[in-house]
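hey team, just a heads up i'm posting the complex here instead of the shared drive bc the drive is being weird again. everything in one block, sequence lines first with there labels, then the predicted structure for the whole assembly after. its two chains so it's a bit long, scroll down
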Amino acid sequence: MIEIIQTPPLNSVQDLGRFGYRSYGIGCAGAMDRVALAAGNLALGNGANLAGIEFQLFPVQLRFHCDIAIALTGADCSPTLDVHSLPPWWVVNVKAGQVLTLNSPLGGMRSYLAVAGGIDVPVVLGSRSTQSRDGFGGFAGRPLRAGDQLPTAPGPALQFRDSFGLGIQPPDAVLKGGYHSWAAPDDLILRVIPASEYDQFDAASLHAFKTASWTVTVQSNRMGYRLAGTSLQRMNPTEMRSQAIVAGVIQVPPSGEPIIQLSDGNSAGGYPKIAIVIQSDLWRLAQAAPGRSLRFVEVSLDDARAARTEQAKYLADVARLCSYCRSSRAGA
Amino acid sequence: MSEAMHSMSSVVELLRRNGIEEFEVWDGASHFKLVLPPAEAAVPVTAAVDFKTGQGVEVTSPASGTFVARHPSRSKDFVAVGDIKQQGECMALIQIGPIYRPVVAPFAGKIVQTLCRPGDAVDFSLPLFVLQRQAAI
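-- predicted structure starts here --
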């Protein structure tokens, strides 16, 4: 069991998402940075989809009430276990009574805690993710509060080659992102594929979309990111019927400033869709804090497939090499 | 590093850890023999230390891989010469594919020398740092 000693609002239990219920108006929820949660789970020998905790606000303090192996991934929140500091992206055994402290990250936005066996909250509609807006799933259908006691599934007791644990190379050091010839070194480059209303935008807007620098505004959360930059306009602005949307879709409301739909996004929407961010780049966006500059670069479906294959290979390598540094103790 | 190298490395580490100096396997067709030089500095590090003069002790690599002095998510190296580290603190990482194994301070002390540069390929028991016991500082 894990006791939450201190947490700001909006930290919640998430797995990789709730799929198959969009036709009933139920969004996917799930971790914003799926690569981080999946890597943490795989490093512990869990299935990639087991539930962990997503932290978006800090500081956080947790106390473990059992001996358990944990993996901390995502943004580097300068974690400390009791008084000992841990490197980022770290996998280690903790003992009952130990306190984990997570601080505000200097870079990145969201950190993830995975535990051997996973966080044992009930599966609702095929997932353990917290559906914050609808108030179900996760821990009691709501974000975590101080005093919550999260059950952990009885998992195997793990032993690592080094008692200090082992690290995972963060995906941004491994996975190649997109390339944009106008981008500054710190710009986040998102690869996009044109969506259904792409052709309705005027030439100046399409040019601006692909060349301008966009800024993540403070109106950005798990539902979506609102961007600031140029105003994008359609040649013939007409009202549209609502259509299905998925995480990654870039909608352009009448104000002309795009919104990227994310994990807690709506299942349908009536704003025109200019493009969709490829799924393998959504984890990068999940780590972009307000104020970060973005650029969009158009890629083909083949490029998107190649990016997905590269990401799958990274996760497979993490799973394989972590298993080489880990063994299950008997009598767990 | 290849799979075969990994398997070999883990065999060598097992032998080192258990103080075995010779290892031989044969199955009729093939024959394989591994002879390790007597462990000069078995893991964890307990090489000859002169407590009185405060002579440095070599901290050696726990694995064969690439020496990483700075975590890619951080802007500062784990340690610099002159730093004082407590027992059990992380001093560097050894990268093997997409994972890292930690180099941990075997006792509290001051780092007097670094013997490897970031990106260097290192082997088991290769000295990485010279650490001076705190009592002798």
